[in-house]
Amino acid sequence: MKQQELAGPLAGSAEASPAREAEFGPARALRRSAPVRAAVAFVRQASTIAWAETRKLRRDSTEIFTRAVQPVLWLGIFGVIMGRARAIPTGSLGYLDFLVPGILAQSVLFVAIFYGISLIWERDLGILHKYLASPAYRGALVAGKAASAGIRAVIQAVIVSAVAVLMGAHLRLSPGPLLAALLFIVLGAAVFSTFSLIIACLVKTRERFMGIGQLLTMPLFFASNAIYPLSLMPRGLQLFSRANPLTYQVDALRALMIQGGESVMGYGVDLAVMVGTLIVLVAVAARLYPTAVN
Amino acid sequence: MTKSEYDNAAGGPPGAVAIETAGLTRRFGLLTAVDGLTLRIPRGAIFGLLGPNGAGKSTTLKMLTTLLPPSAGTAQVAGLDLSREPREVRRRIGYVPQLLSAEGALTAYENLMVFARLYDVPRRERKERIQKALELIGLQDSADVVVKRFSGGMIRRLEIAQAVLHRPAVLFLDEPTVGLDPVARRMVWEHVRELRARFGTTVLLTTHSMEEADELCDAVAILHQGRIAALGTPAELKAQVGPTATLDDAFVHFTGNSLDTGGGYREAARTRRTARRLG
């Protein structure tokens, strides 16, 4: 076989030529420093994954509505009954007001914690192999998934909030706090969906993954301030709850969303815990991601 | 192994090597899936890896595409060391997995855009490259159709287009025509030849189809139990077995294996699942 004249523009690294650079643009890219270029590529890759995931969601949106049923039951039945019983001391807040941020965070958690199953699907389909054979940063692949889980959670939050308002909860509807609340909702979804991806990388089968997901949801939910204040808990459970990111998410949401709500931990602590946890989890998931195909 | 005619025939100038492995080995516990593979594939070749199920084809492909680290040995792909510069290798290769890998919920255009962005194709070139890729595989009229509605052959062609948007030096195809009807198969072969002719892309594919190997490949290696049992052009391998031998005969001769023994439950289930999905 004759060696082709065209011989593949990328066929050899030694063939850098002006024509080749004009076509593929490394000369232009070199003007930026390496870390900046890497950061730009990371963000572009992560947003690409988030974009693709969100497009997929748009074409199958029924799921978002079926997910709204459970929070409605919690607010409508549990919230109303516990509110009448006045069994849980919630300070100046009515119980329904106290409960709304907790149920909102819970509904986001319950969806996010099963997010990793999509990774197992993608592995079985072969999609994951292709992503891993691309030069995209592993961290960007993970962060993109986390971001799409966050976008999904925003839609959920809007639905749950609307239900809460209809039920007479006193939400604070000014733009600043609302945006801040959305940030915490996105962070919560990102944290728990990344946690879920880690589990998926470790267990590898759908059945085991579902088992572990179910095992995790209840402790994460009950060992938090979602439906009662931490002060009601025995000491050991309090410690556990303080190690639970959900507690910090609910703490911030309660102060941001509810009229008269206050943060027990402080917004700064809430934000630091959520962001710090997310960074650690994304780093761990990025390390484990390639093992998912083996 | 005797020096093959193939070494000279397909080689081009010396040093124009797309893939070179030395003692490439992968062990899983006690099992050695790939055992000291030493291979040299010249640039611009279409090279087939043949072998019964479990011979080490997929493991080899996974190592060469950086999905699986080797247990021992070295490999260079597109002039770069696999273990030392995996990210740079990934920039220079394209990969079409055996299983269905296009996103069914996205359109053909969206599928291509995702990979154009992941492979750092410059923004101002993305649309044009996607357009050209769609023309190359004859899907320009289906660009905005959701992939779920595609036939198996269309999906395969789209996957090939996805894998070459960044103009890779080496393209890896894992059983590219499994489950496709004869017409769709021929179309895939045409596209592979077209890629080589236009861009000089080197293609490494695995296959179970002796017809595919005979028609499409310049050279093949027959793997058996993780080692190379035979290497050469299809014509050479046939000649080694007998004057009227087919490639099927050569395969049986070199592996001591007939083609249809199957690979156990898991392999069979997976192949059939793939066939159904692509069909």
Please give a structural write-up.
The complex is a heterodimer of chains A (294) and B (279). By secondary structure, chain A is mostly helical. Chain A has one domain. Chain A has 14 helices and no strands. The radius of gyration of chain A is 23 Å and the shape is globular. With 279 residues, chain B is an alpha/beta fold. Chain B has one domain: P-loop containing nucleotide triphosphate hydrolases (Rossmann fold), CATH 3.40.50.300. Chain B contains eleven helices and ten strands. In chain B, the strands form two sheets. In chain B, strands 6-7-8-3-9-10 form a six-stranded mixed sheet, sandwiched between helices. In chain B, strands 2-1-4-5 form a four-stranded antiparallel sheet, covered by helices on one side. In chain B, strand 1 and strand 2 form a beta hairpin. In chain B, helix 4 packs parallel to helix 6, helix 6 (152-164) runs parallel beside helix 7 (182-199) and helix 9 (234-241) packs across helix 10 (247-255). The longest helix of chain B has 18 residues, at 182-199. The radius of gyration of chain B is 18 Å and the shape is globular. Classes of the chains: A mainly alpha (294), B alpha/beta (279). At the A-B interface, helix 3 and helix 8 of A face helix 3, strand 6, helix 4 and helix 7 of B.
